[in-house]
Specification:
31% helix, 3 helices, 100 residues, globular, alpha/beta, Transcription Regulator spoIIAA
Length: 100
């Protein structure tokens, strides 16, 4: 279970990769992945390619990310496995985030 993040200055994009289970144990690591960044961010991409599980804590972490980001920041959730995408769609996260 790891969170990796990197910033692309040219596109002003913060990329966050979630590996393993996206649950309560990841709260601090996820917040640190974007919370200590001082450069301007226009886009945040959360990559779920290696995420095998998400619970309500994961949904809460995404909502906290949305609250912390500037209102003009576009947040995209990418590479969701079918079960992750189903949770996001049932929770109507497609109304708050771009889901690819």
């Amino acid at each position: 279970m790891t969170i990796r993040s990197h910033y692309e200055a040219e596109s002003r994009t913060m990329n966050i990769e979630v590996n393993g289970r996206f649950d309560f144990k990841m709260v601090n690591a996820f917040k640190e992945s974007y919370g200590n960044h001082s450069e301007p961010v226009d886009n945040i991409v959360v990559d779920f390619r290696e995420t095998e599980y998400m619970d309500s804590s994961g949904l809460g972490m995404l909502l906290n990310l949305k609250r912390q980001a500037n209102e003009d920041t576009v947040i995209t959730l990418t590479n969701c496995r079918p079960q992750i995408k189903k949770i996001l769609m049932i929770s109507r996260f497609d109304k708050k985030f771009t889901i690819q």
